[in-house]
Amino acid sequence: MIEKLRTRFTTTTIMLSSCIVTGLLTIPIVLMGGNQLFPTSTTVWLAVIALGVISQGLGQGLLAYCLKQFTSGFVSIFMLMEPLITAILAWKVFGEQLNLLNWIAFFIILTGLYLATISKGAAKSSAIH
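^ thats the sequence. predicted structure below, dont judge the formating
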């Protein structure tokens, strides 16, 4: 859906609209659940702001931005890099052990990304724009 919207609107417009709609849909659920609507401590406020800026702003915003140049199929395949990067960071930062099955999965993911990158369907043709 964002790929289709991206042909007409800017990334900022799409992301702002998405945040407003999901926020309006989420507020009644939180209120019906009887949960607290706003954080009470500075630490929790900073965590919420960081989640919004990093996850929504950078993560989802960059994905929406990429949909102007790449197909949604290619972007979704590229998203397979997320668990690979997470596992490598866990290995380096936290000393997690990676077994042979992890390394085989990494090889399969990287091979698929390479094949998707060299395919002619990865980049959108200029006729679509």
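The longest helix spans residues 42-66.
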